Each structure stands twice: as structure tokens, then as C-alpha cells.
Amino acid sequence: MSCIGLIITGGSGLAGQALQKIHTNAIYISSKDFDLTKEKEVKAMFEEYKPDEVIHLAAKVGGIIKNMKYPADMLYENTLMNSFVIHYACKYNVKKLIGVLSNCAYPDIAENYPLREEYLYSGPPQKTNFAYAYSKRTLGVQIDSYRKQFNCNFFSVIPCNMYGPNDCFGKGNSHFVAALIRKIHEAKVNNKKTINLMGTGKPLRQYLYSEDFAKILLLLLDKYEGEKSINVAPAKQNPSIAKIAEIALEATDSQDIKIIFDESSPDGQYRKDLDTNRLIDIIGNFKFTSLSGGIKKTYEWYLNNIANMQKKE
Ligand code: NDP
After folding, report:
1. Rounded to an integer, what distance in angstroms lies between the CA atom of residue 138 and that of residue 132?
2. Is the C-alpha dihedral spanning 152, 220, 7, 207 positive or negative?
3. For residue 211, what are the β-bridge partners?
4. Out of 106, 132, 146, 163, which one is annotated catalytic?
5. Is 209 labeled as catalytic in the residue annotation?
6. Which atom of ligand 1 is nearest to the CA of 62?
7. Which of 136, 198, 204, 209 could form an S-S bond across to 294 if both were Cys, CB 3.0 to 4.6 Å?
8. For ligand 1, what atom is nearest to the CA of residue 61?
């Protein structure tokens, strides 16, 4: 096949499906198309499409339980995928590539907050997602190294936690907001007046609506020619888990449900809010979806898709 413009790995995931909604003119890759942990398949993908541009979203991703249970898989699979994708993007002369890191890759404790991009390697990551964090740090180092040695026009973004339609809502493998929406819904359906959440409710979390992330990735692909990593998050928002739960109860019209925190289970990192000055300098003022508005839209999507999801579980 001749050269196509843009390929997006991880095209079937949360962020990938948000991109599909707003940008149809790209090739979206899932693990069913190419298993990116296999060098032969990564090479075949580049050979087939010879893309000009790549957004590399694909990753083994999970919440605190999955990260604690499968650290070896997180490290092994992510490191393989990232190594092969960056290497072959370079060999096949990709003109621009965005690699996606995560705010989990930042040090567990920093001297200053919000976290600026230059603090990324300045201390050990949180122990509950240590392996995943290191696979993301290595991706950042790999992108910088290919830029230095081969002059590749590659850079990375560092998003905060995400949520939105098409998130993974399953028990045991979901992220916090998706799990929260499922728990609230199940309590409503079963007429229960309480739901249980892990931890103390005290940690602070920035949350990014997946469709905002998709728009920002396309803006950066278009506008950014620099080499630095860029934090992506809604500026100056950093509510506690307990506050997010309260917002979700309101957004789903479930104020009669009470939250019970299981303080014996781990909290994860206390805070990892991101400084977004660099992002704003590049894309200008961006109107982020409010947490309440995003949760409403996600819950609506969940209600429309719950039957399909239950069939797959
Ligand atoms: P998802 O878990 O929703 O999707 C992961 C994607 O990666 C899927 O398309 C999946 O394909 C693909 N994938 C996984 N393994 C392989 C493989 N071996 N070969 C090919 N493709 C594979 O991820 P998100 O959309 O949530 O995340 C996108 C990016 O953003 C990731 O890099 C993630 O680390 C990062 N990020 C995510 C955050 C979040 O809160 N979700 C927060 C910060 C960063 P398939 O569907 O076929 O399995």
C-alpha cells in the first residue's frame, strides 16, 4: 500500500475511540490488527501503511488492582510495544510521532506542585504502579534518544487520569471514574443506599475527558514542532476522590446514595496534578469539559451500552 497520513495505535481503546469520533481520516489499529508486542507485526504494520504521522496510544493499561497484580505484564508488554513502535517509526521515516506517557510516571513525592515536565525523572514513582510508570519513563527516554541520534521529529505527552465513553467498566480491571459510575448504577438498580470505594477518599486527582484529550492530540499534531514533553490536564482542577464521588452522585441524580470508604485498601499516590503552562502556550485557551458534564455524558453512554458490555463480560 502507498503512504497514508496518520496511523493511531490503540485505536480501539478509550482515547482511540474518542479520536475516531472526531477524526475519520486515519487508520485505527487494535491488537486484532497487529500485536505490537511482536516485532514482526510492528514491522508489517509500518510496511503496509508507510504512515507520515503516528499517534502511539497502545498500551497495557489498568487501575490500581491490575497494576498491583500484574506488574511484570505491565512492564514487559508496554516496553516491547513502545520499543518496536518507536524503532520502526524511525526506520520507516515517520515525519511526526506523538508517544503517550502518563502522570503515573512522575515521582510519588515531588518538591513542588503542580508537576512540571522537567520533574519526570526526579524521584521514584508510586509503588502501586511502579512497573507501568517505568515503562512510560522508558518510552520518554526512547523518544528523546531517537530524536537525538536520528533527528526524528518525535515528542511525548503526559496526560492525567482519563475517563469517558468506551472506558473499561468491568469489575477488577477498570479505572476509578468508570468503576464509580458502574457502582452507582448497580446501587440504583438494586435499590441499595450505599456504595464502597477503595481507600480514604483523600487523594487528589485531575481528570481529563477522553474527547478533550483527542482534540488536544490533534491540535498538538498540527501545531507543535518542539522536542519537549507536554503535560495534558484541565488546569487548576485537583479535587479529592471523595469530592469526585460527590460530583458523580449529583451528575447521575443519585444524591440519596452514601459512599463508604474502605480505609484498609491502598490509596495510591496522594497527588499528581500537572502544570499545564507549556500546553496552554502551544494550544491557547482550551475549553475543557467540566467533570460533572463529562460524567453525565459518560453515564448516558454507559446506559446505552450496558447490555452489550454485559454480553462481553
Ligand atoms: P485503553 O486500555 O482503553 O486501550 C488500550 C489500547 O491499546 C487498545 O486499543 C488495545 O487494543 C491496545 N493494545 C493493548 N495491547 C496491545 C497489543 N499487544 N498490540 C496492539 N494493541 C494493543 O487505553 P486508553 O485509551 O485509556 O489509554 C491510551 C493511552 O493513554 C495509553 O498509552 C495509556 O497508557 C495512556 N494514559 C491513559 C490514562 C487513562 O486514565 N486511561 C491516563 C494517562 C495515560 P485492543 O482493544 O485490541 O486490546
Report:
1. 10
2. positive
3. none
4. 132
5. no
6. 2
7. 209
8. 2
Rounded to whole angstroms, how far apart are CA atoms 117 and 276? 9
259-268 average pLDDT score:
93
Expressed in angstroms and rounded, the spacing between residue 291 Cα and the centre of ligand 1 is 22
Residue that is written with C-alpha cell 485531575 in the block = 206
Mutate to test the pocket of ligand 1, among 61, 137, 162 (most ligand atoms within 8 A of CB): 61
User: 16 by DSSP, 3-state: which?
Assistant: helix
pLDDT interval class at 313 (50, 70, 90): low
CA distance 73 to 78: 8
Residue 266's nearest CA partner among 206, 204, 207, 200 is: 200
Residue 125, CA atoms < 13 Å, CB-side half-sphere: 19
User: Distance between CA 305 and CA 313 in Å, rounded?
Assistant: 13
The 3-state DSSP composition of the chain as helix, strand, coil percent (nearest 5) reads 45, 15, 40
Closest atom, ligand 1, to C-alpha of 132: 34
Cα–ligand 1 centroid distance for 56 (angstroms): 9
C-alpha 137 – ligand 1 centre gap (Å): 16
Classify 232 as helix, strand or coil: strand
Q: What mean pLDDT value characterizes the chain?
A: 95
Residue nearest to atom 20 of ligand 1 (CA): 31
pLDDT above 70: residue 312: no
Helix (H, G, I), strand (E, B) or coil at 259: strand
Q: At residue 171, what is the residue type?
A: K
Neighbours of 200 (CB within 10 A): 17
